[in-house]
Amino acid sequence: MAVEEEGLRVFQSVKIKIGEAKNIPPYPGPNRMRDCYCTVNLDQEEVFRTKIVEKSLCPFYGEDFYCEIPRSFRHLSFYIFDRDVFRRDSSIGKVAVKKEDLQKYHGKDTWFQLQPVSADSEVQGKVHLELRLSEVITDSGVINHKLATRVLECQGLPIVNGQCDPYAAVSLLGPSRSEAKKTKVKRKTNNPQFDEVFYFEVTRPLSCTKRQFDVEEEDVDKLALRVDLWNASNLKFGDEFLGGVRVPLRVLGQFGVHDAWYYLQPRENAGKSVKVEELGSLRLNIVYTEDHVFPSEHYTPLRDLLLDSANPVSASTANILGEVCREKQEAAIPLVRLFLHYGKIVPFISAIAHAEVNRTQDPNTIFRGNSLTSKCIDETMKLAGMHYLQVTLKPIIDEICTEHKPCEIDPVKLKESENLDTNRENLRHYVDRIFNVITTSGVRCPTVMCDIFFSLRESAATRFQDEDQDVRYTAVSSFIFLRFFAPAILSPNLFQLRPHHPDAATSRTLTLISKTIQTLGSLATSKSANFKETYMAGFYDYFNEQKYADAVKNFLDLISTSGKWDQKSIETPIMLKEGFMIKRAQGRNRFGMKNFKKRWFRLTNHEFTYHKTKGEGALCSIPIENILAVERLEEESFKMKNMFQVIQPERALYIQANNCVEARDWIDILTKVSQCNRKRLSTYHPSAYLNGHWLCCKLSADTAPGCTPCTGGLPANIQLDVDGDRETERIYSLYSTYMTKLIKMEEACGSKSVYDGPEQEEYSSFVIDDPQETYKTLKQIVSAVQTLEQQHTKYKRDKFKKTKIGSQEHPIGDKSFQCYIRQQSESSTYSI
Fold it and tell me: Rounded to two decimals, what is the model's pTM?
């Protein structure tokens, strides 16, 4: 989801590797071990949870998490929880990384000390205050000063124990501290509207020499206004602190007036009673990305250069990006997504693959390196083939992870209670089943993958047919088995086949299966020799029958036949997403209860259903063709966050997701899967129909047409939905990052052109087949990148001039923006 800023869209995303924790404090009791899990939070909203690692004080997680961040946030937080024997969760410690500090840890494995967790330190939200200082002349002629404090509203307050009933307490801090004055309690809202004014007598003498209301120098640090937000509690333990702000009176300045938003802060002494080193530490790798995307026309020059990269490929814009990037995958990810978006991925990959095949001397090494071609095909398979993987492998992977059958065949690692022959039979059973589901799945292979495999087969056969009759198979199997199915079996959590990394025993089973499947698909002449381990070579003898090789070749023939299969003709429903959410009863009966209940939701390419629990029959089934729109539902409708609505011909189904990231994911995939519906609505009601009228437009008829345009875009392929402008912006960022290398490549082209000899040693890192054409392309790239750089610089400076600290978008206390302001002020003397 993008945040719109005057024609510019801002996208935030984060990729996290949760490694391990160490030195967790032991459990106070005879059994000192803990059962720990880790959560990822945007501020205090949980968006991901790892598996529980049992009986360990140094739990290893090894889990990856990626999400698009759909809202503003102040901290990216990680909590370590312990689950005791009564299945109660207690927090051990947390890591909270400020948004402005994320770049410091970008892409680095970092150990973070766990910090104490306390109610006082769990602060989020902001408050809008207005202060006004005025003179009051008494009957005796004495001038007093009165401070009027107006508490207008708050936004984004934390919800404590499922409820938020906030009020504000306002006091004047100084030598004679005033008693706190309180607003009324606002029930069931974390965005309260207070709009209450409180008055305070300022008794200290004020300096008026320059017709200002400044507090005397010696009193600047003594006089301040304190505003604390509290959650009114019905419990005997008292009200809960939500956060506060301290406003020194010096902010009143020349005119004695101050109007600003403030971020709420924790208490100054929050969490200081515990020694930090006693809580342990957590290893994380965080990659936070923020893309600023301009309107499409700004990217036309660079985009046109990129999309013309197939002619000629050796001197193309895309190939140059692959040469200058530190890692080929850096270039492959945005390139593949861009070419997919514009329907040119097959000719692009065909061109770069053909060029690589022509440079390959030995058919046994074809597509074996981490080249731009290999990385681009890997990324294409991940994007286009994710649902293919799910429908093919997920059922059997789920079974393996659930059954926990012993499959260890290494005699050295065998447990005393295990039997080697039984384990071999268990493993052979799993390998046979996975092999069969793969080799019979050719009809489901996405068309775009089939077209690419057809191109690979033709290029390899043309180049090496006389030297290796099987090269047309190995060129394809090196991707579909080695880089697609085998990695998915090895790490199913990375391919959305499982929610978490498998336990150690299951992971070992999957490793053995992956190795065997990879070798079966390789069609090598001496397969047993492929294994370094003698026990694997012996196990592979089970699969030496010709039927396995024939099945692989038949499968490879099928998936490398261009344009033969259309994925839309598959009759088997493909499961796209499932999970628990809360739904409101749809009110099919006029006087029926319309309460909220937790249900298991399941979405396929055929229907959207919900069930009482996972595995039970559907309580309700909505055919995809009956989904007319999927939109967010305004929070005020039911005083509940993260709600959306699935609009049907006769009614809307109101659903609450578990967090903001999950809500965005459900809305996105439901919108995409229903976008081809010709009956889709153009307008909708952003609020619910309650008490005989729509809350948004106040119309009384429940059939009244919508009052707001729908946000759903044009029809799109579920698997290949890509924002072309965003990917072009990412490619621009890469070119900008590696501008020094681009200049060096230009110099290398000049050197080769002039001397027509071998590359000089300082330019040996570049592969330049056509210096003259490459030089022309480089000049065009540099020109396009510099133009975009100027537009970015102009945008930043315009924003710097327009933005006000203390505004609703940038409250006081927003250190990330204050850092940005400082950077802009330091660079303001430079011209574009």
Answer: 0.79
